[in-house]
Design brief:
- The structure is a homodimer of 193-residue chains.
- Chain A is an all-alpha fold.
- Chain A contains ten helices and no strands.
- Chain A has two domains: 54 residues, Arc Repressor Mutant, subunit A (Orthogonal Bundle); 130 residues, Orthogonal Bundle (Tetracycline Repressor, domain 2), CATH 1.10.357.
- The N and C termini of chain A lie far apart (52 Å).
Chain lengths: 193, 193
């Protein structure tokens, strides 16, 4: 049991470390945040941070990884739907839900070139996700207009969901509005409520 | 004439300084860029930078100011149009044109929390612009759905216009696609071409 406790403490430090990193990244940008600042904020030594992550890039990757894994799963589920309409609705609903649940993280993804680049570099998840999402929402072999339309919708939903303007809205309200806006923009018929 | 030449040289240094700042901000974020880095990149002393700008905030403001002034003018012109449709088309066309002409700057606005915050703080231009743009595009007294729709469209257009994915598209192509996507999303009728 002793080793389990040690493991749990380490895990706890790790998750506190990631939460602190996200907060500092949001405030100062990734470029403006150092491992030393993260250590100071946590009240630990830089060596303690270094025990978990060797570089800021590793922290950025660890921050982004769970959300990207969720996205992959949403895309798999969406692709397994039978009709085009159900595929679009599933992908859109999953994307919007993810945005709303991880608002702070989304705001960070949206607003820091360091994060986006670190993810592209290390996970190649963002590019892969974008390609799959465009294929699902715009259909196979979309023309330029179709691709740009989907980009505008996804970027707009993500940026609006993470925006400070809507911080006061509760999750359910924000989720349902973003979903309806997305459906309308994608030309999906009105739902009966 | 001597003083005019000196003035011209100073102006030239200032505009080179701003261009260099934009490039460094894009690469390292505002938080990750120092006055010293800007001086080094320009091959001048920090004192020479300091002659023009006392703080990084002043540089950010100077970078953003011309585009915000253009936006104000577009909104004035749009508000002076007679029909709601013409108001929407004018505001949208002006916004899209500005995005496309200043792609690098827009990418920076979109992707750095430091820039957005500096603008909000020093010019209060961004918030004022957003309020006026929403009023123009969503109409007077819009409900939450209307406000969110306009936010998604504006954020989506700006993020897509500044995105690296579309770097290869020439200005005319990008401009016309973004304009058409925006019109469709705002429920404007198809134009005869």
């Amino acid at each position: 049991m002793a080793s389990m406790t040690v493991g749990t403490v380490a895990e706890d430090t790790k998750s506190r470390l990631l939460a602190t990193a996200v907060r500092l990244f949001s405030e100062h940008g990734v470029g403006g945040t150092s491992l030393q600042m993260i250590a100071d904020e946590l009240g630990v030594t830089k060596a303690a941070v270094y025990y978990h992550f060797k570089t800021k890039g590793e922290i950025t990757e660890a921050v982004a990884a769970p959300a990207l894994r969720e996205l992959e799963q949403i895309l798999d589920e969406a692709a397994a739907q039978r009709s085009r309409g159900a595929q679009i609705d599933h992908a859109l609903a999953g994307f919007v839900d993810l945005i709303v649940r991880h608002r702070a993280l989304v705001a960070l993804f949206n607003t820091d070139p360091g994060v986006a680049r670190a993810i592209d570099r290390s996970l190649r998840g963002a590019q892969n996700f974008k390609t799959r999402m465009v294929a699902l929402l715009a259909g196979p072999d979309p023309d330029l207009a179709g691709v740009i339309t989907v980009h505008v919708i996804l970027a707009g939903l993500a940026l609006t969901g993470g925006a400070a303007d809507h911080e006061d809205l509760d999750d359910d309200t924000l989720r349902s509005h973003l979903f309806e806006v997305g459906r309308r923009m994608l030309g999906r018929p009105k739902r009966r409520v």
